[in-house]
Amino acid sequence: MKKNELIHVHTLLVEIATDYRDRGVLTSADLEPYHRLGIGPMALRDCRADHERAVRTLTTALAVCAARDLDRDAEGVPGRHLLASDEAAGTDTDQHATSY
């Protein structure tokens, strides 16, 4: 995926997060790991890797909240380590793919 496509996906995920917040599916605390990164979709000068991490973190937070809203087991959501504190999370992700 090209950087501009990744930024577009990032923007769409933020819209979903806003909808979830408006509907009461998630709270600001649920998005704290994402906000801690400090990378929003309009951070156009940030590197692709930063946007990838932000997208993965936001996707994981949304998946956990959706599972909880549907009374499903949120522990089974892949990538939950991305929601841990900075010291515990490190920089590794559970999805390794070469970006071209």
TrEMBL record:
Top-level taxon of the source organism: Archaea
Region entry Disordered, spans: 81-100
One Pfam short name: UPF0058
Protein name: UPF0058 family protein
Phylogenetic classification of the source organism: Archaea, Methanobacteriati, Methanobacteriota, Stenosarchaea group, Halobacteria
